[in-house]
Amino acid sequence: MPRLIDLRRHDAVSHQTLLDGLYASPPQVPARYFYDELGSALFTAITHLPEYYPSQLEHEIFRRHARAMADLLPRKATLVDLGAGDGSKAGALLRWMHPAKYLAVDIAGECTQRSLQAIEADYPETEMMVLACDFSAGLAWPQHWRCERPVFFFPGSSIGNFSPRQARSFLRMLCQLCRSSPQGQGELLLGVDLVKEHHRLRAAYDDALGVTAAFNRNLLRHLNRVIGADFDVDRFHHLAVFNQEASRIEMWLHPDADQQVRWQQGGRVFHEGEGLLTECSHKYTTEGVRLLLASAGFDVQHEWLDDSRGYLVCHARSA
Ligand code: AVJ
User: Fold this and answer.
1) Distances (CA, A) of 17 to 29, 55, 108
2) Which of 108, 162, 192, 219 could bridge across to 166 with cysteines, CB 3.0–4.6 Å?
3) Is any ligand 1 atom within 6 A of the Cβ of residue 150?
4) pTM of the predicted model over 0.85
5) Are 192 and 160 in contact, with CB atoms under 8 Å apart?
């Protein structure tokens, strides 16, 4: 079984951010709270939905180009998979790349560890490790680790969960990690969902089976556990809207009627008509991605698009 290093902070600081968000107007919850055991499984289910095109398009790109991508990347690299999930996105790459190390970073580390256990034997040249942490707050590993020839793998358009400003500082942080590696540079493979017809965007976040609705509402069950809240999950409904001005999909949970919710040391009323903002998923243009990477200190080396030009994978190098 791959080693799991747990850097999650079960401390007051992260809870305080959560509580501040719940008291804000509109109330909001960091997207990491989607991913308990069930939430991670529901997300995997989402990636199988016909409406959820980002996974399909990205998969198409990797299926076609993973071999060429692997040829462009250094030998004996450390592949750092940000938000590894079940490791399936890295699979296509691992197959051709044979990195010396595969470092799978995920907030639901145990789920990732279990998935990797199942595929570990297929990649005998690669040492696998799991880092359980919320990397959105920054990525730090133990001082004595030498991250040789780092290749940061950030697929799935997870970058979209950040605001453009946060995305830039996150990428800057990755660029710094590249520069501070023993080789003084590193690489990035980034997958980004692009702006497209609104109905297609919305359908991806409001599917016919209601899996995304379940994924969204499950966040309240998770909160009930972590802060001892009493959200009546039944009485919140899922809403997905495209905010054109901000170029992002927003997921909301709206109470069917005013609802008083209590938690340890607090509580508040969630008013009918005042939703809880649970996720923002920013959509970029190809030009927007180029500008973002350049502003973070990366030089774009290659770009790959799917046939419908709805999804972009970029290979960049720290400048
Ligand atoms: C994993 C953050 C990229 O924003 O598309 C999928 C999460 N939320 N359906 C996304 C998600 C609802 C996903 N990311």
Assistant:
1) 9, 30, 19
2) 162
3) no
4) yes
5) yes
Q: What's the average model confidence in pLDDT over 213-220?
A: 98
Which percentage of the chain shows pLDDT scores above 70?
Answer: 99
Instruction: Measure 281 CA to ligand 1 centroid, in angstroms.
Output: 7
Model confidence over 1-60: pLDDT tens digits?
999 999 887 655 678 889 999 999 999 999 989 999 999 999 999 999 999 999 999 999
Calculate how far, in angstroms, residue 293's C-alpha sits from the geometric centre of ligand 1. Answer: 21
H helix or E strand, kind and range, residue 40: helix 37-46
Over residues 254-279, mean pLDDT? 96
Whether residue 217 contacts residue 233, with contact meaning beta carbons closer than 8 Å, is answered with: yes
* Ligand 1 atom closest to Cα of residue 279: 8
> Cβ(252) to ligand 1 under 6 A?
no
Is the CB–ligand 1 distance for residue 157 below 6 Å?
yes
